[in-house]
Amino acid sequence: MAEKINTKVVTGFVELVPEDQIKFNNLKKVIEEQYQVFGFLPIDTPAIERAEVLKANISDETVKQIYQFKRGKKDLALRFDLTVPLARYVADHFNDLNFPFKRYHIGKSYRAEKPQKGRFREFYQADVDVVGVNNLEVDYDLEMLTLVYQTFQKLDVAKFKIRINNRQILSTLIKYLDCGNKEDEILRILDKKEKVGVVEFKKMMLEIGLNNEQVEFLIKFISVRGLDRVVSHLKSFSQIEDDRFKKAIKDFEKLISLIKKLDLDENCFELDLSIARGLNYYTGLVFETNLLDYPEIGSVCSGGRYDNLIATYSSQKMQGFGFSIGLSRLFDQLRELNLLKNNKKTIDLLIISLDSNLDAIEIAKKLREQDLKIDINLSSDNLRKKMKNADKRKVEWVLLVGENEVKNQKYILQNMKTGEKKEVKVGEIREFVK
Amino acid sequence: MAEKINTKVVTGFVELVPEDQIKFNNLKKVIEEQYQVFGFLPIDTPAIERAEVLKANISDETVKQIYQFKRGKKDLALRFDLTVPLARYVADHFNDLNFPFKRYHIGKSYRAEKPQKGRFREFYQADVDVVGVNNLEVDYDLEMLTLVYQTFQKLDVAKFKIRINNRQILSTLIKYLDCGNKEDEILRILDKKEKVGVVEFKKMMLEIGLNNEQVEFLIKFISVRGLDRVVSHLKSFSQIEDDRFKKAIKDFEKLISLIKKLDLDENCFELDLSIARGLNYYTGLVFETNLLDYPEIGSVCSGGRYDNLIATYSSQKMQGFGFSIGLSRLFDQLRELNLLKNNKKTIDLLIISLDSNLDAIEIAKKLREQDLKIDINLSSDNLRKKMKNADKRKVEWVLLVGENEVKNQKYILQNMKTGEKKEVKVGEIREFVK
Questions:
Q1: pTM for this structure?
Q2: Element (H, E) at A298
Q3: Per-residue pLDDT of chain B (434 residues; tens, 9 = 90+)
Q4: Rounded to an integer, what distance in angstroms lies between the CA atom of residue B122 and that of residue A49?
Q5: How far, in Å, CA of A180 to CA of B328, rounded?
Q6: Which of residues 335-364 of B touch A (CB under 8 A)?
Q7: Which of B41, B95, B313, B351 to mutate to probe the A interface, most A CBs <10 Å?
Q8: Nearest to B45 among A15, A71, A361 (CB)
Q9: Given A197, B359, B394, B419, which residue has the most CB atoms within 10 angstroms?
């Protein structure tokens, strides 16, 4: 006991004070409600997986970030995302699930990243995926994009834009430019374009062996943004005679129809041919979501179509579309920008017991039966100290319960913001504090 | 890819199919709501702690169960309960918290236990604690017992009994019997009494050096159960002249007054002098909760008063009272006993798109705006196959959306249980399915 124990959380990890935790939980709840409203079902998987499951299909860079350990003879590891566990889950529970399988999963993942602003070693993600057997219509992808839209509408924290592309367009373009064998490298550089700027981007492209003409063509090709504009732009490249290219244009057109039909705000959507997404498992539509007034945050929600991901774990052919909101990161940045609404009270009422604590507990019981969130100060402190404590907690309402009040069955309800006092019966309290 | 990857969860770990996950989430929600109604605030702490924090105050047996690993130079470990993290959290955030600090924490913990029925290596606990600086009135303990009562009333899964004792009574008795130096051993054996039976219990007591007379006295002393009966029983031991003994009797009397005053069901409470609780940090009231018709389950909710626990991490004197519901274990056993109510629908309505998927998505949007949980089948399967799929999912209502329906703005709403069909407008759907 004499030894001093370090009580700080481990570097790179985070925990919140209750007031912030309530805001975090509120953010999480809004997202979860939208996922449910769109018919997604919850799952939860163990944080600990066999190391081989996690390492089956990822880059060396990610492998280094995995928390790995041995237990007995087993090589175990903490999951680094919720997508690999989904793929394993679908493979393992295949016969118990109904397809298309729509699941959401809000949980913690772990990466031993270099500590930096907005990057945590333990972080919540809010993932949502739809997985079909053999084939999944692209209409599911389009519906998923409306879920992104609805979720950010409901969050109502800032103006946002969902920037959409299709990997097939990039892939057919790269093939057309005769750089087919460099597709992975080109996509990786493309994904970094906004971060590094156009000069560095060109340089990187030349370095991997593209010539000037190819790079200029690529830059011109990906520079157009908008909705109908992008479709016209794509149609102007009639020289790219690839069915995948044509199908992708059709899907864009269908998306635009849907946006108009559902009367969604067109300013929230953009086709952006420069979007590549870093992960190599995407095979179709891909997207990112940015908060327009806070471009420095980067994407707050991204995802796309994957047609082969689950094949690592299952012999059954499956196609999926999913996306993820980086909840911990989003929360951290919204909090810093002061964009989180403080509309969640911690408690509805604090009862200050002046004489008999049992009487105060009895009144609390009656109010709690009305689903009010009630705290009681049962300490032996005097009234002044109890009022000071109530003030410090920023509670809005306090109820004073002393011997006289109990005798008369009338209690003093005080608003801590306005100072206003009222004599009330127990039955009258709810309408004031709610 | 050719290599076969084992997709089963690691032995001792568990994951649920969505239908069960919804039931689990429902159980969790009822508990969380009660914790909130009693004015407790949420916190969340990292699953990974410094190993020294976790190992500061626990038995060698528990140390062996900790998942430990090294990362760089750091010895890290996964938390094995939510109480140690609470103690660390309170010490670390002392200046940012309001006291008495009332927090709840529902989260996962990890123990590498031998796999056995109802024991998981990753498990949810639902913890709730109140911590006071210097001193915490016993009235808080009594209020906490009413929270246990309300929570199990709300869960409404089975008849339950909260069995309460006070460590001070056992401690003063052991001192009176002149076995003061064997207190820890006696409590440990006492805690196993129900499991091992009275014969083995006697044998174990004799083995640690008690004589026959002491053991008989102890057995007689702890054999009385009830409420007022136990108080009279205790008062008959006027030879135990210890203030702690007398204070404990007063607290029991106060608890009985509270139960009567709040008109709680007296059958749900019992003073039971044989309750010891295994953990050595308890210093006052301790309790367990049993489901009366399922004694084999053991305690489903237990806790007590601790006056020195936080001292391991802080120089500030603090007293606390807390308890824990073993959520994963409780869920597993209630599910097995078929005691979980299936009152949570997965979704409210499944839309079956027959022709234009965009039309179906538009109708879904309108219904989702009414907070209905809507899934849509957008696949190219025919109607028969889609109906079969709806049946398999056990949805209650389906809505058929085809070209004709869209033209007439009237859709076919079908109840999958009764087979009943209705022609409805979009605005009429909510009242049927809710």
A1: 0.95
A2: none
A3: 446 789 999 999 999 999 999 999 999 999 999 999 999 999 999 999 999 999 987 888 889 999 999 998 999 999 999 999 999 999 999 999 999 999 999 999 999 988 888 889 999 999 999 999 999 999 999 999 999 999 999 999 999 999 999 999 999 999 999 998 999 899 999 989 888 999 999 999 999 999 999 999 999 999 999 999 999 999 999 999 999 999 999 999 999 999 999 999 999 999 999 999 877 789 999 999 999 999 989 999 999 999 988 888 998 999 999 999 999 999 999 999 999 977 668 899 999 999 999 999 999 999 999 999 999 999 999 999 999 999 999 999 999 999 999 999 999 999 999 999 999 999 999 999 98
A4: 11
A5: 51
A6: 346-347, 350, 357-358, 361-362, 364
A7: B41
A8: A15
A9: B359
| 8 Å CB contact between B323 and B301 | yes
Q: CA nearest A426: which of A380, A381, A367?
A: A367
Query: How many angstroms separate the CA of residue B350 from the nearest CA in chain A?
Result: 8
**Measured distance CA(A16)–CA(B103) in Å, rounded:** 12
For residues A76 and A95, what is the distance between their CA atoms, to the nearest angstrom? 26
Contact B350, B372 (CB under 8 A): no
Q: Which chain A residues are Cβ-neighbours of B37 within 8 angstroms? A: 368, 371-374
Torsion of CA B160, B162, B163, B165, to 10 degrees: 180
Q: Are B7 and A38 a contacting pair at CB < 8 A?
A: no
Query: How far does A204 lie from chain B, in Å, by closest CA?
Result: 31
* Interacting residues of B181 by C-beta distance below 8 A, sequence separation 6+: none
ipTM: 0.95
| Non-local CB neighbours of B209 within 8 Å, separated by 6+ positions | B182
Interface with chain A: mutation pick from B154, B358, B374, B416, highest number of A CBs within 10 Å: B358
Tokens of B428: 């009429």
